[in-house]
Amino acid sequence: AGAAIPPSVQGRSLKPVLNGQQEQVYDAVFAHFMDSQRMIRTSEWKYVVYPQAKREQLFSVKDDPDELQDLSKEASLSPIKSRLKSRLLEWRQERSDSTL
Question: How large is the average pLDDT for residues 33-57?
Answer without folding.
Answer: 93
